Amino acid sequence: FLPELIQFLCAILRLMVQTLTISHFISGRALAKTPASLHLNQTQHCKILEGLVSSQVQLCRSNLELMQTIIQAAKEVKKTCQKTFADMRWNCSSIELVPNFSPDLERGTREAAFVYALSAAAISHFIARACTSGDLRGCSCGPIPGEIPGPGYRWGGCADNLHYGLLMGSKFSDAPMKMKKSGSQANKLMHLHNSEVGRQVIEALELKCKCHGVSGSCSIKTCWRGLQDLKDIAIDLKTKYLSASKVVHRPMGTRKQLVPKDIDIRPVRENELVYLQSSPDFCAKNEKLGSLGTQDRHCNKTSIGSDSCDLMCCGRGYNPYTEQLIERCNCKYHWCCYVTCKKCERTVERYVCK
């Protein structure tokens, strides 16, 4: 069996490259498309998706349209993770190596904790929103809140179906970790815990409203409960990543549990990310540790944060270079109704780590 993280993410990310008409990996390196005229039914489609455990295959067979939503979630996980960590030494670039994962995501690191939490959050998030948009037959809009809105407000619209998203998302996300032969018990507990933390974060629904009234007066607001954008969820999880607790798997009462390594007098908090293995500093390339290093990474000379040249380059120094940018400038609005702009060129200085 593959390690839990590989098994889980391969199942999701392989879906990204397989469509209902179907494309699949050949020798793990290239995509080959079957003839467009070949359409596979649900059973055949789910059977050829490598990496799915039996309960995921069953979910696929009974909810094929759900797989397309999961494909979208997987794409967004990759993009959002890399964007969220663009200013860090570890920048989630190893997710590009799918279906082969480097040790930063194979081991029980805080990086693996973040990817698990974000993946679980994204799957539930996209399912909940797919209910709202009518893309899934098994669900519809979320329920109307029980409390009475304030003056000038009324409940309406189509709320994101958080309950259905959490229900179906957890069924798919947690299935590999609930298999008896899917790896060490410590890793399974860690990944189940972090997946639940990810789903907890999306439960913070926002009040979203649409104005009604004469000439845009907004005398009445129709409101509903909606999910935050995934980028905001990722930022919240990044904060939890930075303050994650290292844990150990040890007997507590009648069974083994995850407990904080340095503070074993309290249980693991439900809203904190946890990890089992310490991470490298990601300064130098080390394939055994899953570190790609920061050589040739861009840095910010004026920053005092994690993207500063001092921190990003780990004290090795940096090389400057210039880049010519062509931008729109001197834009003018013409009545009615178009804008004309000139093209201006300017030189900017960039910096890359030695």
Automatic annotation (TrEMBL):
<keyword id="KW-0217">Developmental protein</keyword>
<keyword id="KW-0325">Glycoprotein</keyword>
<dbReference type="GO" id="GO:0030182">
    <property type="term" value="P:neuron differentiation"/>
</dbReference>
<keyword id="KW-0879">Wnt signaling pathway</keyword>
<dbReference type="GO" id="GO:0005109">
    <property type="term" value="F:frizzled binding"/>
</dbReference>
<dbReference type="GO" id="GO:0005125">
    <property type="term" value="F:cytokine activity"/>
</dbReference>
<dbReference type="InterPro" id="IPR005817">
    <property type="entry name" value="Wnt"/>
</dbReference>
<dbReference type="GO" id="GO:0060070">
    <property type="term" value="P:canonical Wnt signaling pathway"/>
</dbReference>
<keyword id="KW-0964">Secreted</keyword>
<feature type="signal peptide">
    <location>
        <begin position="1"/>
        <end position="32"/>
    </location>
</feature>
<protein>
    <recommendedName>
        <fullName>Protein Wnt</fullName>
    </recommendedName>
</protein>
<dbReference type="InterPro" id="IPR018161">
    <property type="entry name" value="Wnt_CS"/>
</dbReference>
<keyword id="KW-1015">Disulfide bond</keyword>
<comment type="function">
    <text>Ligand for members of the frizzled family of seven transmembrane receptors.</text>
</comment>
<dbReference type="GO" id="GO:0045165">
    <property type="term" value="P:cell fate commitment"/>
</dbReference>
<dbReference type="GO" id="GO:0005615">
    <property type="term" value="C:extracellular space"/>
</dbReference>
<comment type="similarity">
    <text>Belongs to the Wnt family.</text>
</comment>
<keyword id="KW-0732">Signal</keyword>
<keyword id="KW-0449">Lipoprotein</keyword>
<dbReference type="Pfam" id="PF00110">
    <property type="entry name" value="wnt"/>
</dbReference>
<dbReference type="GO" id="GO:0048513">
    <property type="term" value="P:animal organ development"/>
</dbReference>
<dbReference type="InterPro" id="IPR043158">
    <property type="entry name" value="Wnt_C"/>
</dbReference>
<keyword id="KW-0272">Extracellular matrix</keyword>
